[in-house]
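[Discussion] Sanity-checking designs against the backbone

I'm trying to build intuition for which residues belong where. Below is a structure token string of 519 positions. I'd appreciate it if someone posts a full sequence so I can compare it with mine line by line.
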């Protein structure tokens, strides 16, 4: 039986047809603001502006039970190999656990290794920030350059920007793109004697990362000599031999594990650059926020479970209200990179067209994610959100606290956010001109943080991690692999080697490349 023929799916389909083209509520339904609201330790989810009724929610919960969300959740936290295509566990949650209860992977307890690595990271961070660990000339470090791509860049980059108020003593830089402008523009801002490079690559073979790392090494050795590499480079990788061959000392290699996917890896040594920027205490607060969301996700009943409800409403919009995209609208400048982070988290996880067993799907999975910050997006693509022919779901993300102490700015920011939600939900049905008609009944969530600090950021990131997992369970897909990125990589390598081994299309592509390369 396919998902679309199951009882819970069929009930939702019938229900959605009854609601199609209509609003599920009116502005008079003030009680929804309390009834459709969940909170955890200063993080709040309000879904009163979803085009959904209580019956919708009840039917979605039936779907969650049918798809065994609770059972799959238990399997993930227990370390079962739920990443079936790669035969791996998905245990990013183990990295932020507060206890040392044994957790077995292939018969081995992984907690001692996690704790040992965390102790090493904390000691290294204290040494660098305290001045005990210095560069080749004896100077302390003022610039931290994270070189990585994908999950080795997006999570640390987001956290460093979101928590910029907690960064002390150093300037953070991130390099990801193969475009030489990226590395050149960063190096131009740095002093070789006071720059520490953190190279992040599980395999230490990622093309963009290694290319940028080699350019950075050449820049450093030109200024300070080859012996400086051991004092100015550290690595986060599982490939110790390749790292040492690069010139990084064995003592300065921090491990990665195959049971942590890249887009879930901020909590591991991949977060080293963040810890260097904000310090160990704040980095632990980030962990603790995520751990609190883990505990909530594990224990809260499904109807009171924030990640579960966020995921179910996303399925409702994608599969039953025909919304092909989700707009991430952060009304906080420091969360400007949040849409980029979520693009990888959700689109790489759930951009799948076959089930865990390899059967072709007859329903849609992960939506397109895009977004922009606050009122900036209102002057860009919000026209399409309000009056375009395609319904788009939205997540509005705001911060209650006015930590800039500028109440005029803050009230304007939050007023604009609430107004956008209202215009999407209620529209404008009567106007002198058809150009002024707004369809309304377009779904949105409000996700509100009491304040933007390490703990609440941890809550927010883990909320979306678990939401992504639940969506994958509902759709019956593997959210922890990403085979779709490999074909293009293999083809690129063949083309770089001036070979037609880029596959059956190699000859065509080789000729195309020759046409665009400089003569």
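Best answer:
Here's mine. Compare freely.
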């Amino acid at each position: 039986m396919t998902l679309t023929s199951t009882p819970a799916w069929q009930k939702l389909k019938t229900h959605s047809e009854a609601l199609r083209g209509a609003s599920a509520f009116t502005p008079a339904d003030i009680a929804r603001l309390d009834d459709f609201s969940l909170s955890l330790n200063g993080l709040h989810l309000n879904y009163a502006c979803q085009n959904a009724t209580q019956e919708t929610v009840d039917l979605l919960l039936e779907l969650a039970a049918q798809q065994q969300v609770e059972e799959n959740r238990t399997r993930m936290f227990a370390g079962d190999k739920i990443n079936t295509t790669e035969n791996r566990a998905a245990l990013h949650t183990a990295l932020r656990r507060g206890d040392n209860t044994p957790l077995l992977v292939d018969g081995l307890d992984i907690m001692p290794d996690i704790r040992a690595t965390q102790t090493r990271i904390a000691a290294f961070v204290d040494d660098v920030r305290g001045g005990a660990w210095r560069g080749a000339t004896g100077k302390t470090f003022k610039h931290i350059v994270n070189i990585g791509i994908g999950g080795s860049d997006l999570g640390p980059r987001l956290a460093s920007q979101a928590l910029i108020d907690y960064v002390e003593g150093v300037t953070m830089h991130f390099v990801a793109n193969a475009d030489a402008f990226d590395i050149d523009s960063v190096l131009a801002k740095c002093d070789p004697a006071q720059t520490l490079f953190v190279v992040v690559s599980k395999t230490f073979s990622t093309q963009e990362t290694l290319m940028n790392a080699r350019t950075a090494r050449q820049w450093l050795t030109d200024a300070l000599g080859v012996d400086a590499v051991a004092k100015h480079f550290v690595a986060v990788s599982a490939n110790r031999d390749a790292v040492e061959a690069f010139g990084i000392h064995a003592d300065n290699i921090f491990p990665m594990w195959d049971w942590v996917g890249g887009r879930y890896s901020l909590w591991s040594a991949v977060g080293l650059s963040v810890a260097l920027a904000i310090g160990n205490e704040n980095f632990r607060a980030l962990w603790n926020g995520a751990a609190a969301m883990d505990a909530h996700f594990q224990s809260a009943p499904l109807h009171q479970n924030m990640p579960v409800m966020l995921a179910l409403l996303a399925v409702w919009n994608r599969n039953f209200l025909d919304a092909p995209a989700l707009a991430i609208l952060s009304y906080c400048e420091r969360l400007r990179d949040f849409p980029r982070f979520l693009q990888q988290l959700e689109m790489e996880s759930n951009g799948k067209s076959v089930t865990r067993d390899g059967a072709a799907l007859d329903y849609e999975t992960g939506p397109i994610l895009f977004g922009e910050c606050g009122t900036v997006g209102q002057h860009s693509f919000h026209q399409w959100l309000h009056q375009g022919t395609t319904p788009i779901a939205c997540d509005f993300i705001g911060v209650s606290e006015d930590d800039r102490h500028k109440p005029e700015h803050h009230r304007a920011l939050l007023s604009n956010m609430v107004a956008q939600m209202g215009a999407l939900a209620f529209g404008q049905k009567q106007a002198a001109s058809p150009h002024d008609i707004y369809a309304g009944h377009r779904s949105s969530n409000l996700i509100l943080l009491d304040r933007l600090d390490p703990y609440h950021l941890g809550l927010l990131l883990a909320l979306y991690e678990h939401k992504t997992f639940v969506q994958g369970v509902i759709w019956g897909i593997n959210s922890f692999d990403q085979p779709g990125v490999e074909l293009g990589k293999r083809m690129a390598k063949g083309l770089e080697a001036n070979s037609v081994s880029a596959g059956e299309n190699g000859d065509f592509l080789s000729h195309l490349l020759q046409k665009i390369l400089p003569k």
